[in-house]
Amino acid sequence: MAAVPRDPGPVTAESAVVTRLNGRAAQLPADEGFPAWSRAVTGVLAGRVFPDRRQREWTLPKVISCGEPRSAEQLTEASDWCRRTAVQHRDGYEALYQLATAARTRRVRNAAIERLRGRTEV
Question: Which among 99, 105, 17, 103 has a CA at the least distance from the CA of 54?
Answer without folding.
Answer: 17
